[in-house]
Structures are given as structure tokens and as C-alpha cells.
Design brief:
The protein has 311 residues and is of the alpha/beta class. 37% of the residues lie in helices and 16% in strands. The protein has one domain: TIM Barrel. The longest helix is centred in the C-terminal third of the chain and has 16 residues.
């Protein structure tokens, strides 16, 4: 799998990153272990997790696999802090909340450091300088080799990068053919600060696989009460037209829709890695085939046009 530097830093990561959001709930221990094994065998290094994933179970599973299924040295661990481990999601961008969550993550992962530690979405009741002080403490102590943020808007990232006395190497945001809003300000702001984008939701919340065309499979996320509000916005209107265009183009190229969508994503300026998740090892195996394939210029232009956002 292709490797890329994260912005202007010396950190190298795999073009595709393995997301663990479903581990511990939709993905059991055996399937999660197999996903990690397949990912590393394919050349993947970046594994992304967070305290809230699987209501706290994802980090525990991942920690159990490190140095058992794969060596710690083979992984680039990207961990988001400042969110609850169970119950309703709650942000905590305070110094205490962030550093407590980092210590808990390190304990569950069974390691003395993470490679990239991310502050969550801006906490409206916590001053920015306090959130940044927690990132600086983690960075200067070596518990986090690099630090960044998640889901910051363009102006929020620019302000944080200008305020911090240390480098923010990444902004972890949703970005796909179905959601190109990051291109307005988020991507340029990161580039201007020497940072990179980690693109979560790179397959349009699963819609760009084509599995929701014309129907919602009974076994899919879209059929569940929990996930349907998350997926439904991408099932009609312009997102539906974009998905149809991807499926039509992929047939002509003898590719699967997800392969074409990821090829487009991995050729966007500023993107260091596209985070992907899967419910089964077989799904992940199919996705990993898209890790370093080239993107034909004319096809990219067509997809750019059909998915273009308003200025």
C-alpha cells in the first residue's frame, strides 16, 4: 500500500487507514482481529480509534491485539480524546478531561504512547488555549508523538494552528465525493499550516459502495434505527446522482464503486489517508485493493464535475 507523509511532518502513514468505530458492537473480537491482520498484511499502518468507539470496547480490543496479532512497531495509532466511553456522546475539551482520556487510552491500548493524538470537535464551553495546553502536555511528554484535531472548521483550525506553540499535523474531517465541503476552507487552512487531512467517511457513510441503490438491505446499517438518520441524507437528491455516476463509471472501468470512490479520494490534494471501516473481514479485503491504484485524469474530471460544490 502506498505511504504518504502527513503534511510537512516526517510522519509516514498508509494511504488507507483502518477505522475501528464498529469494533466491539457490530464487529466482534474474532472479526476485528482478522481485520487488523488483513490490514497490516496489505501494507496498512494507520489505525484510528477513540474512547467512544464501541462504547469503550474498541480500544480494549485493539490493545489486546497489539504485540499479539501485530507488533506495536507496525502500527501508527491515531486516537481521538475528550469523548465519553459509554452512554450518550459528550465532548470534554478541558485539560483534565483530555489528559484523563489519554491516560485511559494508553492503559487500554497497552502502550506508553500514541502516534497521533487528536482533540475532538471544539468544546464550546472550554477556552481554546486550555484545549491546546492539553495537546502540548501530551506532545512535550512524549505520550503523543504528534498531535492534531478532529472536525475543526477552516477558521477554527487556522486559529488553533496560529495560537499553538507546537505543530498541529492533521485535521480529521469527513470528506468524500458525497461531502466535499472541506474543500471550501478546511483543506486550504490545513495546507497553509503545513498540516494534512485525514478523511473519515471516505465512502460516503457506506453509500458509495452502491449497496443502497434502489433499496436499503435489511442487514445493513441503513435499516437500523440507530444508523438510518446518519445515512439517509446521502440517499436522495444530489448525493444519489453522484452515487449513480460512480456506479456507471465503475462498470465501464470494470471496477467496484468503492474502488473508484477511493481512487478519487486518494488523489485529492492535502489528503494523507482515507479512513475506511468494514463490518466483515471480507468487506475490508475488497476495500484494501484500492490502496494504491492510479486514477485516470478524464475520469477524475467527470467525477469532479458531477460532485462539484457551490463556491
Amino acid at each position: 500500500m502506498q505511504r504518504r507523509n502527513v503534511g510537512e511532518s516526517g510522519l509516514s502513514v498508509s494511504a488507507l487507514g483502518l477505522g475501528t468505530m464498529n469494533w466491539g458492537q457490530e464487529v466482534n473480537e474474532e472479526a476485528a482481529r482478522e481485520q487488523l491482520r488483513l490490514f497490516v498484511e496489505a501494507g496498512g499502518t494507520l489505525v484510528e480509534s477513540a474512547a467512544r468507539y464501541g462504547e469503550g470496547q474498541a480500544e480494549a480490543l485493539l490493545g489486546g491485539f497489539i504485540n499479539d496479532t501485530v507488533a506495536r512497531s507496525e502500527l501508527v495509532l491515531v486516537v481521538q480524546g475528550g469523548t465519553t466511553r459509554s452512554g450518550s456522546r459528550r465532548l470534554d475539551g478541558s485539560r483534565r478531561g483530555l489528559l484523563d482520556s489519554l491516560d485511559a487510552s494508553l492503559s487500554l491500548l497497552g502502550t506508553d504512547h500514541v502516534d497521533v493524538w487528536l482533540a475532538p470537535s471544539p468544546d464550546p464551553i472550554v477556552p481554546l488555549h486550555e484545549t491546546l495546553s492539553a495537546l502540548e502536555a501530551a506532545y512535550s511528554s512524549g505520550r503523543a508523538r504528534y498531535v492534531g484535531v478532529s472536525n475543526y472548521s477552516g477558521w477554527e483550525f487556522a486559529r488553533a494552528a496560529a495560537t499553538a506553540g507546537f505543530p498541529l499535523v492533521v485535521n480529521d474531517v469527513e470528506y468524500s465525493l458525497l461531502n466535499r465541503g472541506a474543500e471550501r476552507e478546511v483543506v486550504p487552512a490545513a495546507a497553509a499550516s503545513g498540516a494534512a487531512i485525514l478523511a473519515w467517511g471516505a465512502l460516503g457513510r457506506g453509500v458509495l459502495t452502491g449497496k443502497y441503490r434502489g433499496r436499503i438491505p435489511s442487514e445493513s446499517r441503513g435499516a437500523s434505527d440507530v444508523w438510518s438518520p446518519y445515512i439517509e441524507p446521502y440517499l436522495s437528491g444530489k448525493p444519489q446522482r453522484i452515487t449513480e455516476a460512480v456506479c456507471t463509471a465503475s462498470r465501464g472501468l470494470d471496477l467496484q464503486p468503492h474502488e473508484l470512490a477511493l481512487r478519487w479520494m486518494l488523489h485529492r490534494p492535502g489528503v494523507a489517508s482515507a479512513i475506511v471501516g468494514a463490518r466483515t473481514p471480507q468487506q475490508l479485503k475488497e476495500i484494501l485493493q484500492s490502496g494504491s491504484a492510479p486514477m485516470a485524469g478524464p475520469i477524475a474530471e467527470v467525477l469532479d464535475e458531477v460532485s462539484a460544490i457551490a463556491p
